[in-house]
Amino acid sequence: MFFWCKKVVGFWLMPLPFSLVLIVTGLLLLRFTGRRILGRILAVCGGVWLLACGNVGFGTWLVRGLEGQFPAQPVLNAESPPPPALSRCHFVAVLGGGHCVQSGWSANQQLSASALARIVEGVRLVRQLPNAKLVVSGPLDDREGGPTHAALYHEVALALGVADGRIIQIDTARDTEQEALALRAVAGGKPVALVTSAWHLPRAMALCHVQGLDVLACPTDYAARPPRLRPTDFLSWNLGGLERSTKAVYEYIGASWSWLRGRA
């Protein structure tokens, strides 16, 4: 119950739903009550917040603050050894990123864009670490059934050339905090290369540190493309800006919630 309450509250705090709630509430107050000043304030605040979050420059600025905290892992090749920090990792852990269930689609087609980017990066790294295990995480979709997220990751990793015996599935963790706890049970104190979206990585790293995990940040799935801000970005509004703002707000809320509970 707590898990679903958290999801519902989190959804309504996202920029688009939250803005619409403010606008609609303000309009209702204007139309049906005498609290016209409060109604105008709510409606205007909702509209301004929606415009801000849909702005490309503002969205990029928000998400870049998350994505710039950890550098990407470098280009790797068979002729030169991986960096020392990566070479010492016994596990490459790929956190869940969402999927749909569709009969007739291959596993990679069922993964979300974020999940696909994560597993590709995880496979890229583990193929350069011959002694490391690939840990894939993600539960069953309660609404759609079908294979678990971890099973889809497993199938994609096999198709990309990872041996079956090198893959470990975590299919019961439902959020990042539970993934960190499950990863602790798998890895113990051994170093782990942690692969997830760049905008999600700061919170994921903090939750792993709480569990005492020795983790190396391996960001992927960058939302800010290009990461640099251009003056013209602040003169542009589109769904991409709103998507970047939404990801950033979700992570800041999640990090705040973890901090309030002493989990990060």
Polypeptide structure, described:
- The chain has a five-stranded parallel sheet with strand order 3-2-1-4-5, with helices on both faces.
- The model has no long low-confidence stretch (mean pLDDT about 95).
- The chain has two domains: about 1-65 and about 235-260, no CATH class; about 85-220, Rossmann fold, CATH 3.40.50.620.
- It is an alpha/beta fold and about 260 residues long.
- The protein has helices at about 1-10, 15-30, 35-55, 55-65, 85, 105-110, 115-125, 150-160, 175-185, 200-210, 240-260, and strands at about 90-95, 135, 165-170, 190-195, 215-220.
- The chain has eleven helices and five strands, in the order αααααβααβαβαβαβα.
- The protein starts with a helix and ends with a helix.
- The longest helix has 22 residues, at about 240-260.
- Strand 4, helix 10 and strand 5 (about 215-220) form a beta-alpha-beta unit.
- Helix 4 crosses helix 11 (about 240-260).
Short structural description:
The chain has helices spanning 2-12, 15-32, 36-53, 56-67, 84-87, 107-110, 113-126, 149-159, 176-187, 201-210, 239-260; strands at 91-94, 133-137, 167-170, 192-197, 215-220. It is α/β, with parallel strands linked by helices.
